[in-house]
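User: I'm preparing a small set of examples for a lab meeting where we compare how different chains pack in three dimensions. I only have the primary sequence for this one, and I'd like the structure in token form so I can line it up with the others. Please keep the answer compact; I'll paste it straight into my notes.
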Amino acid sequence: MPKSLPLRLVLASASPARRKILQAAGIETDVLVSGVDESLVVTERAEELCLELARMKAQAVLTRLGPADDQRTLVIGCDSVLAFDGEILGKPTDAADATRRWKRMRGRSGVLHSGHCLIDVEAGRRAEAVASTVVHFADVSDDEIATYVGTGEPLAVAGAFTIDGLGGPFVERIEGDPSTVIGLSLPMLRRLLAELEIPITDLWTKIAPGSQTVELLG
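Assistant: Understood. Below is the structure token output for the 218-residue chain.
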């Protein structure tokens, strides 16, 4: 595979937070939502669940893409779940579920697992792994929980919390990579790219000082 071909990264996720992480790291992406039915995967291991869902998302998007002669296309699928008290917690089913979770989680800790599956379309190669981070929740009050759940934010995210949004003040600290908790680990992405013999710097874009103009490197 000629290394001079321009790189295209396709994010198999509807998550604006994941795209924002990549953009902040200098990586522009195309987005194709996978439409995967997450209920099809049943397992009691959080690491297995998030990795299998990441695979399914990447594969679903891959089937909609064809090999290209003028570029090298990469697809990244991700999925996150929270392991807490022996349970696997994805997105809450409703506001009552989110409230119950927060009343259990407050003052305690869980492990956020994010699965990653990276596929090099033209080369037919893939690299995958799970990144895990311990999350320590603040001992928030009933009123804080009610107000937070009322915003709707907890209903849209795995584990019913964020660290890059309104939920940030309710997380005391984390042990591990912060981007894992947001949904896509940048250090993990670098390692997976290296397995495919692609430096992460090859995906960087250049932004002129004081300007929003983006110029692709290479």
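A couple of notes for your slides: Strands lie at 7-11, 30-31, 72-84, 87-89, 109-120, 125-137, 171-175, 205-207, 214-216. Residues 208-218 have pLDDT under 50 and may be disordered.

User: Perfect, thanks.
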